[in-house]
Write a structure and sequence with these properties.
CATH class of the largest domain: Mainly Alpha
Distance between the termini: 82 Å
CATH superfamily of the largest domain: RNA polymerase sigma factor, region 2, helix turn helix motif
Shape: elongated
Radius of gyration: 33 Å
Number of strands: 0
Largest sheet: none
């Protein structure tokens, strides 16, 4: 470490390579998951790099490194404890579509939607086909249809409102 402080990059690289397995062994005593061990080792190596100028070459390197490692490990364990205290484990109750038959009605009502689109006025039907079904941009749809962008926006808005109304009436059985 003293040579690394003097600017010897090769010595610094060798130092990091030699302390990494030792740090990994220290971290493995505190963490269960391999990714936590590696993350902890990286934290220690980054800290050593950031504060390497604080090492006193007149003192032993090992205790300096172990003190840094222990502090980083404790900090990391505290952070994980705080995070886990705020987390809620997910179960199947939290799934949006836990049931395999969810949304079955929507999937089978394609013919109803196609029929509703066919019942739209010609301008609205064309706007829906170009913008929503063929996924054209407003500029492309205006070019193809010969209608202004503003007219296409209005026709699309009206068509969507009409489709919502028609489909809700069909699902309610006409009870509106």
């Amino acid at each position: 470490m003293a040579r690394a402080q003097d600017g010897d990059g090769t010595a610094y690289l060798r130092l990091l390579q030699e302390v990494t397995p030792y740090l990994r062994a220290l971290a493995a005593r505190r963490y269960r998951e391999p990714q936590d061990v590696e993350d902890a080792v990286q934290d220690v190596l980054l800290t050593v790099h950031a504060i390497r100028q604080t090492f006193d070459p007149a003192r032993p390197f090992g205790p300096w490194l172990v003190a840094i490692a222990n502090r980083r490990f404790i900090d990391r364990l505290r952070r994980q404890g705080r995070l886990r205290a705020r987390e809620t484990p997910l179960t199947t109750e939290h799934e949006t579509f836990a049931d395999g038959t969810a949304n079955l009605e929507e999937r089978t009502d394609r013919h109803g939607l196609e029929g509703a689109i066919d019942n739209l006025p010609p301008m609205q039907k064309q706007a829906i086909e170009l913008l929503k079904l063929k996924e054209m941009s407003l500029k492309e749809a205006a070019s193809v249809s010969g209608v202004s962008v503003a007219s296409l926006k209005v026709a699309t808005h009206r068509a969507l409102r009409s489709l919502r109304r028609m489909l809700s009436e069909r699902n309610d059985g006409g009870r509106r």
